[in-house]
Amino acid sequence: MERKRIIVGVAGGIAAYKAATVVRQLTEAGHSVRVVPTESALKFVGAATFEALSGNPVHTGVFDDVHEVPHVRIGQAADLVVVAPATADLLARAAGGRADDLLTATLLTARCPVLYAPAMHTEMWLHPATSENVATLRRRGSVVMEPASGRLTGADTGPGRLPEAEEISTLAQLLLARGDALPYDLAGVKVLVTAGGTREPIDPVRFIGNRSSGKQGYAMARVMAQRGADVTLIAGNTAGLVDPAAVHVVHVGSAAQLHDAVSKHAPDANVLVMAAAVADFRPAHAATSKIKKGPAGQGEPTIELVRNDDVLAGAVRSRSDGQLPNMKAIVGFAAETGDANGDVLFHARAKLKRKGCDLLVVNAVGENRAFEVDHNDGWLLSSDGNESALEHGSKTVIASRIVDAIVGFLRTSAG
Question: Does 128 lie in the same domain as 246?
Answer without folding.
Answer: no
